[in-house]
Specification:
The complex is a heterodimer of chains A (236) and B (295). By secondary structure, chain A is of the alpha/beta class. Chain A has nine helices and ten strands. The chains are: A alpha/beta (236), B mainly alpha (295).
């Protein structure tokens, strides 16, 4: 078996005094699309933030392509080849759309990442609005921008937090097509998703997070069999 | 002799130039404060003391080591900037998670310390520093006599301020800085060494204050108190311009210098209070400042 793109073992994390992740372990193989399911507040977003070192204190182990990152500062973790798209999208108001797109530096020595032209091909709206202030874009355009800008960096491991949240169906479909394209190109993707119908056809495997731990893990083939348990755990 | 509203043109232009010179110092200091506040969220009360250190660096360089004005114009800001970096690394960085007030208190303490040290060595009477030879004398423009050095100060300040504005608003480096001002954690998650950027930004803001100090050395007496005399007006300038606005601090700094100069001609009694009167009016009409964004 090859080195996992991401291997988390016995991860604990805190925000100040509150203990938010309890002995969480999961692993993602290169080229896999993995979805973290769970209720709001179960610890899915915190898991992504903990990988980036954006929570408070952490303990345990987080290996990225076999390299231990638990004691690295955030900016060095990014340079292990991770692209992070936060739930709130994080578009900068004081930058134009294009400046937002060009902001993240290359994080990989070997991969060039997508060119700006390729990203504009994928999301033609962004090309039209490149000179607009970042936060003047519509919600959908901001989401495309938030995802697009990490594709430029050469990151092969993408952490995507709720990218389909609150968007029109046509944009959700465009994002689903994008995930399929990225998967075909060999990207490794960890998604946090509330929208089960968006995530289900895209993911290879699922983790259900509950109370800061992995409550259930299964592959796409076992999705049908796990539906009753899922309905119970997620309350959908 | 030409007169405007009963004031000789020569005197009016002279005061206007003096106002522009003061405005140059206001602009450079408030620009540094704005840049520092933007990224560090620290109201740097020590800015005046660092400006004073710049002036002293020039004076000490010449009197102890025979280093010319031109050498100290570069070396002074570098040294004081380095001093700022040491303060940021050793003290300020522990306060970022706390309220603004703690940064203000710490830098106020640094001010008292620095001024106290200089006072115990040099007293409060100023040290004279002469204008560099190349810029001594004045040029007769026909309608006024223009002292060369003062013209140089205004030109240098305008160039430095607009170069800073250009770098921040129009370059990649500036984009990091603007993004870091909004959301430093996310910028760091993109792989940018934000703690380093914060340190260098503070060093740069401090160096800008010191540069203003070196420029000021031949114009005013080099004294340990020159910073505290200036910093209160500079804070008023920052409030009027709007905290954190780059262009706002430049324009407001120069503009208020001119207004102060003109007040000195037409109603000298108000010249030291006019800035504060304007501040009060601006706060009533636009609480975020002339160029500030409402939060």
């Amino acid at each position: 078996m090859s080195t996992p793109a991401l291997e988390i073992s016995h991860l604990h994390a805190w925000y100040g005094e509150s203990h938010i992740l309890h002995d969480l372990s999961l692993s993602v193989q290169p080229g896999e699309v993995v979805t973290l399911l769970g209720r709001n507040g179960a610890g899915r977003t915190s898991t992504l933030r903990a990988i980036m070192g954006l929570t408070g204190r952490r303990s345990g182990s987080i290996k990225v392509n076999g390299i231990e990152s638990i004691s690295l500062p955030t900016y060095q973790i990014a340079h292990l080849g991770i692209g992070y798209c936060p739930e709130e999208r994080g578009i900068f108001a004081s930058l134009s759309a294009e400046e937002n797109l060009l902001l993240p530096p290359l994080v990989s020595k070997t991969d060039k990442g997508m060119s700006v032209a390729e990203i504009y091909d994928m999301f033609p709206n962004l090309a039209e609005r490149r000179h607009s202030q970042g936060t003047r874009l519509s919600g959908g355009e901001q989401q495309m921008l938030a995802v697009g800008r990490i594709l430029r960096t050469g990151a092969k491991l993408l952490l995507l937090d709720e990218i389909s949240e609150g968007l029109a169906p046509v944009i959700v479909q465009a994002l689903a097509r994008m995930i399929t394209t990225l998967k075909a190109k060999g990207y490794t993707i960890v998604m946090v998703e509330q929208n089960f119908r968006f995530a289900a056809p895209l993911a290879d495997r699922f983790y259900v997070i509950e109370h800061g731990q992995v409550a259930l893990a299964f592959g796409a083939a076992e999705l049908e069999a796990n539906m009753p348990v899922l309905n119970n755990l997620l309350g959908v | 002799m030409t007169e405007i509203f009963g004031i000789p043109l020569q005197a009016l232009l002279g005061q206007l130039l003096l106002g522009l010179v003061n405005g140059s110092f206001y602009a450079m200091l408030s620009l540094g404060l704005a840049v520092i506040f933007g990224l560090l969220n620290v109201i740097n009360f020590a800015h005046g003391a660092l400006y004073m250190m710049g002036a002293f660096a020039a004076w000490m360089g010449l009197s102890y080591f025979g280093l010319s004005y031109w050498v100290m114009l570069i070396v002074g800001p570098l040294m004081v900037g380095l001093f700022g970096i040491v303060i940021e690394r050793s003290m300020l960085r522990w306060l970022y998670k706390l309220d603004h007030l703690y940064g203000l208190l710490l830098t106020f303490g640094v001010t008292l310390l620095v001024e106290g040290v200089f006072r115990s060595f040099y007293g409060v009477s100023g040290q004279p520093y002469s204008v560099p030879e190349a810029l001594a004398g004045a040029t007769n423009l026909g309608f006024m006599i223009l002292p060369n050095y003062r013209a140089f100060v205004v030109a240098a300040a305008v160039v430095v301020c607009f170069a800073t504005w250009f770098v921040i608003e129009k370059t990649k480096l500036g984009a990091y800085l603007r993004a870091g001002t909004e959301n430093p954690k996310l910028v760091e998650a993109f792989g940018i060494n934000v703690p380093m950027m914060v340190t260098l930004t503070f060093g740069f803001g401090v160096a800008l204050a010191a540069l203003a100090g070196v420029l000021a050395a031949p114009v005013i007496q080099v004294s340990p108190l020159m910073g505290s005399n200036l910093i209160i007006v500079v804070f008023a300038v920052v409030v009027i311009g709007g905290m954190g606005s780059i262009l706002g601090s430049i324009v407001t700094g120069l503009g208020l210098g001119v207004i102060e100069g003109l007040t000195r001609v037409f109603y000298p009694e108000a010249s030291s209070t006019v800035v504060f009167v304007i501040m009060a009016i601006v706060l009533m009409i636009r609480p975020a400042g002339l160029f500030g964004k409402e939060k």
